[in-house]
Design brief:
Length: about 150
């Protein structure tokens, strides 16, 4: 099975954390792993599926090119995602869904977020997920934390 078939299978069959595992095959830094796993744990990987399937991506928000499944290892373009997040009216998603993406993006890339505001939008279970990911990222050695910035 090729890695493209693996990703296709993962999108069709597996849960969010399994999809995150498929996306993280290959060389990824610790910050990206934490962010992708957070998105995989959130609502069955809803954001990962949206980012991986252009037909699901909200085209006005510019998400259709955030993940390129033609390359191996698969990479999320965190800079492009950060740029899309600067225009939140381009998203047609509930505020709490968007808040989780806003929390994951700065873990792996150059996006700034008001954590108090983003966390306040999350449901309690999602706050626990976000807090765990933020704690894990905060405990990374300084060189690992700046490698993806």
């Amino acid at each position: 099975m090729t890695w493209q078939q693996n990703i296709g299978y993962a999108l069709a069959v597996t849960g969010g954390l399994e999809l995150a595992g498929h996306l993280l095959v290959g060389d990824h830094d610790a910050n990206e792993r934490i962010a992708v796993q957070l998105l995989g744990r959130h609502r069955g990987g809803r954001w990962l599926r949206t980012l991986c399937v252009p037909e699901l991506a909200d085209l006005e928000a510019g998400l259709e090119d955030v993940v390129d499944l033609r390359e191996s290892p698969v990479r999320i373009n965190w800079r492009l995602l950060a740029a899309a997040l600067q225009v939140p009216q381009g998203f047609r998603h509930p505020a709490d869904d968007l808040a989780m993406l806003e929390i994951a993006a700065p873990i792996a890339g150059p996006h700034r977020v008001n954590l108090r505001s983003a966390l306040s939008l999350l449901k309690p279970d999602d706050r626990v997920l976000a807090a765990a990911a933020l704690s894990e990222a905060a405990l990374l050695p300084a060189d690992a934390a700046t490698a993806s910035a």
